[in-house]
Each structure stands twice: as structure tokens, then as C-alpha cells.
Amino acid sequence: YLLLAPTTYLYRMSSIRRQSIISSIVIYIGFAVGLLNTYFFTREGTFTEAEYGLTTIFIAIATLMASFAALAMPAYIFKFHPYYNDNLPPEKNDMISWALIVSLIGFVLLIIAGWSMKNLVIQKFGTNAPKLVNYYYWIFPMGFGLTIYTVLEAYTWSLHKSVLANFFREVQWRLLTTLLIVLYVTNVIKDYDLFIKFFAFTYPGIAISLFIYLIATRKIHFTLKPSKVSRRFLKKIVTLCSFVYGGTLIFTLSQVFDTIVIASILENGSAKAGIYALATIMTSIIQAPQRGIISASISHLSKAWKDKNMDLLQKVYQRSSINQLVFACAIFLLIWMNFADGIKTFGVKPAYLEASSIFFILGITKIIDMGTGVNAQIIATSTFWRFELLSGVILLGVMLPLTYFLTKEYGLIGPAIATVVSITIYNIIRIVFLWRKFKLFPFTIQSLYTLLLAAACYCICYFAFRDVHGFAGIIGRSASFVILYGLGVVYMKISPDITPVVQTIKKRMGLKS
Questions:
Q1: pLDDT by residue (tens digit) across 150-186?
Q2: CA 56 to CA 37: how far, in whole Å?
């Protein structure tokens, strides 16, 4: 074991790096399609702000539905898949069967609760977001599709097929939306009423696609006979799911609460939600590497805890921190320096200029969250996963009242301020916990160098092109920043993962290392 351990360690780090890079590329392809969709949603003469806002409200509520209905089944899969995989043949592995059945039961309970709460929805949203009330029941197919997909996605990640799962969620789902937009613009879909009804079935579409893949490749087997692993760990599974379920709900609610509050309490809430959604979508571009790294590393983290491999945990923690920080700073500053110019140059409605200050605050939030690495996943896959619930309660306790009061007081900028304050507190708590409990820490001196390098490159590009606007300004600023920042990251050896990637690129291009 001692002889093989270094080889295994290097393989795992290489596997995480490779899957993270490929997943990030896939996710950015999805974001490119998403930006095209956003352009059609926000340009003059296609959709109103309220119509675009309704699609974002649909997504927010469907995400919340999936968290309620899944009953922590993704966490169950992440945590216990190594035990099922190591101790059972595939045809006797009952994990995915029980995960899907429990999720279906959860969604049935959600439908009953949703039907009984219709009057409350009318009361809260009827004035500022009347379209939501009109299409209330059409959110349920979307929520059901996302529930099933979330469970299947977790299972696919555990099979080390994170790239495929990311393709379905990030690329195929957006392509389905693109198809609907094209059909709407070309008048094949006659009106918005039919468009939003078709839109409600986009998540079921990707769930069916992933399910067909797993069946066709024989990666999934179904059995209702309880296995020895299920019987042995039943008590621990129930305990885990009980605690993690609360934490998942808390975290998901914190992610979508701002959109729901905007739609319910601000005048013309659907339109305001559309403006806020533009800022949210632009900040989600910053977050793409985080999704890739999480999907690639989570199965390795679970295995590391099982093997008590603290060295691997520390390496993944620090490398996920610096790699995400490098990319987060780059993407945030690239978008920020071109935000206003982009809206004016591409003919987006002037009303969306209001999203610029929101983007700036939410972008800082993403840098903080990504710069702290995969701390949530490390805690969630450890034996101290109960702490994830505790930190989530603190997050919700800060975020919910702060979002509500700041939105009433300051309008659209309020939820963004509430988010940056609460996410900062949330990550500080988790960093302190991991350090005091396991001596795991995400930051190095390279973290400081990254921030200083990013700030210096931004200042140079800003002052060099501050009087240049339109396409020339966007291209000039962006190209100059990418060259300066990229060379700085490579020359200063900011991340241990940068050099292998550069060497691989040189090798593929036939250049000497």
C-alpha cells in the first residue's frame, strides 16, 4: 500500500485536474449558449422584462422544489457510493433504486403541499408578479424534471462521469431553451403562453436524456431487494439524510430567496426579477470552474475520507482554492470592465444597465465563495456533516431577514448586499471549523499574489482603454487583460496545476517544454 500510495495520489490529482478542465470547458460552452439566450431575452422587440423575469422565477422555484422533493438523496449517493461500489456487484446495488423511489415520494408530498398553498401564492405574488399566479401549476413539471435529474446527476458524478452530467445540465438544457426561443421568434410558437408551457418541460427533457444514457450504457441497475450495505448502514443513512436535508434546503433557499423576494415585494416584480437575473447570469459565468471542480472532486473526497487520506484532502482543498480564485478574478474583471459597453454595443434594453452595480457586488461574492475552495464538499463528505447544517442555519439566519429588509429599503441592490455579507460570514465559519478540527486550510501566499496581480492588470487595462468604446474597446481591454494576467499567472507559478496544463499544451502543439 505504501509503495502504491504515491501513484494512486498522483492519479487522483491528475484525474481531478483533467475532469475539472474538461467540465469547465463544457460548462463554458453552455454559458456561451446561455449568453445567446440571454441576448434574445433582453434585446429590444422580443421579450418584455416581465416575460424574461418569469422564466427566472420558474427556475428559482423549480430549484427550491427539487431540494424539497429529493429528500437529501444526492448527499446519500455522494457519501455512501464508495461503500456500495466496493462491497456489491452492480446488479445487486440497490442505491439508485431507493434514491429514485424516495425522491418520487418526496415530490408527491410536494405536489400536495403546493396545491394547498395556492391561495398563499396568489396573496404574495398576485399584485407584483401576476404572470406567476397564472402559470403556477406549470412550475411543477419543471420541478419534477429537476428533482429526477439531480438524483441521476449525483449518481453519474459518483461514476466519475461528471463531464457527461455537466453537458446535459449546462449545454443540452440551454440548447432546448435556444430551440424554444428560435421557434418563438420565427412565430412557430405563436405566443408567450405556449412558450412558457414548453419551457416548463426543459428539465424533464434533460432528465430523460441522462436516464436513457445510463440505461443504454448499463451504468444503472434497479433492484428493490435491500442489500447488505443498505441494511448495515440504514441508521447512518437516515441520520445523514435527516441532517443534510435541512442543510440542503437552507442553502438552496439562500440561493433563490432574492429572486422570490424581488418578485413578491417590489413594484413590477417580474420585470425587476428580469433585471436582477441578468446580473445573476453574468456572475454564474464566474462560477463555471467551481461547478467543474466540485463535480470532478467530490467522489475523490468521499474516498479520501473513507481511506483517512488527510494529505489528499489538504491538497484538493488548497488547489481548488487557488485554481478557482485565479479563474474567478479573471472572469469577474473581464465582465466588469466591459459590462456597460456590452449592453450599449449589443443593443440590450437600457433598463438592464441597472444590473451593473448588482453584478459588481454579486461578483465579489463569487470570488469570496470560490476562493475558499471546496470546503462545503469536504465537510459534507466527512463524519462531521452535521456541521454543514449548523453553518447553513447561520447562513439562513443572516441572509433571509437581511435580504427582506434591504430589498424594501434599497430596492434591487439590497439582495446583492445581503448576499455578500451572509456568504462571507458563512465561509469564514467553515474555514475556521476545518482548520481547528482537521488543520485543513485553503490559502497560501499565492492567494494574495493572485489578488494583487488581478488588480494590477485591471488598472492597466482600464486606464489604457477608458476612452475607447464599442467593439474596439471591448476587444482591446479583454485581449490586453487576458495576455497580461495569463502571462503573470504562468510566470509567477501561481498554481501547481498551471504548469502541467501548459506543458501538455506545448506538447500537443509540438513545442519544447
A1: 999 999 988 888 788 889 988 999 999 999 999 999 9
A2: 12
Question: Do the Cβ atoms of 416 and 358 come closer than 8 Å?
Answer: yes
pLDDT digits (tens, 9 = 90+) for 2-25: 334 444 545 455 666 666 677 778
Using only the alpha carbons of the chain, give its radius of gyration: 23
SS3 annotation, 451-484: HHHHHHHHHHHHHHHCCCCHHHHHHHHHHHHHHH
Distance (Å, rounded) from C-alpha 228 to C-alpha 231? Answer: 5
Residue 348 phi, psi dihedral angles, 5° rounding: -75, 150
Q: How far is 503 from 506, CA to CA, in rounded Å? A: 5
pLDDT at 446 over 50: yes
Distance of CA 212 to the CA centre of its chain: 24
Integer CA distances (angstroms), 201 to 25, 33, 135, 186, in order: 26, 18, 13, 20
- What lies within 8 Å, CB to CB, of 134 at 6+ separation is none
Is residue 173 within 8 Å of residue 202, measured between CB atoms? Answer: yes
Q: Is 348 helix (H, G, I), strand (E, B) or coil?
A: strand
Write the CA distances from 164 to 170, 295, 479, integer angstroms: 10, 11, 31
Select from 192, 166, 171, 204 the least CA-distant residue to 65. 204
Say what the pLDDT of residue 4 is.
40
Contact 72, 248 (CB under 8 A): yes
Residues 6 or more apart whose Cβ sits within 8 Å of residue 241: 71, 72, 73, 75, 76
Residue with cell 436582477: 276
